[in-house]
Design goal:
The structure is a single chain. By secondary structure, this protein is mostly helical. Among the domains are: about 1-40, no CATH class; about 80-155. Helix content is about 60%, strand content about 0%. It has helices spanning about 35-55, 70-75, 80-135, 140-150, 155-160, and strands at about 1-5, 25. It has a two-stranded antiparallel sheet with strand order 1-2.
Length: about 180
């Protein structure tokens, strides 16, 4: 079976049984898309599990509330006691650590999204190119296309094509 998708690149890994110096590659398996779909499905399941673990790692944050004495301090101009200060500093350090871990997770996801968007753009570009090649107008003989274009050529277009453009003058006859 011949798979034109391997025309994407000579170094494409989609087909290990590539024929040397061929523009097409041959795969010995009965279906090209079935192994690819199975691999993609397992990769997506693995990624989903990793994302679930990442989110679950920070589930404890949704349960955080202020203690009543901290709420009272927030609504007054009182100074915290020495014990409250120690507890606040420890809580602040814990939240800073969590903030750094969450930011690292967001950076990782942002990089993954950017990479996937670049890959999607590349895939769409190839899809567009392949659809252009498969365009029905390519099947119309050149003589017929020329005849169609000849019939669309009007006298006005012919006059515009022969019009002389003077360089060096602007829209109101001012020099450019």
């Amino acid at each position: 079976m011949i798979f034109p998708c391997c025309l994407l690149s000579l170094r494409s890994s989609c087909c290990p049984a590539r024929v040397a110096k061929s523009r097409f590659c041959v795969r010995k398996e009965p279906s090209f898309y079935a192994p690819m779909a199975a691999t993609l499905t397992s990769t997506m399941e693995s990624a989903r599990a990793s994302l679930d673990q990442l989110v679950a790692k920070f589930d404890w944050i949704s349960a955080i509330t202020h203690s009543p004495d901290i709420t009272a301090l927030l609504h007054s101009n009182d100074l915290p006691s020495p014990l409250q200060s120690v507890n606040l500093k420890a809580s602040t350090n814990c939240l800073e650590h969590a903030s750094r871990e969450i930011q690292a997770g967001l950076d990782l996801l942002g990089n993954a999204v950017a990479s996937l968007e670049a890959q999607m753009s590349r895939v769409r570009s190839f899809q567009h190119d392949y659809r252009l090649v498969l365009s029905p107008i390519r099947r119309v003989p050149a003589e017929i296309v020329m005849e169609i274009l000849r019939h669309t050529w009007t006298a006005d277009i012919a006059l515009m094509a022969n019009r002389v453009v003077h360089h060096g003058t602007g829209p109101f006859n001012y020099p450019c």
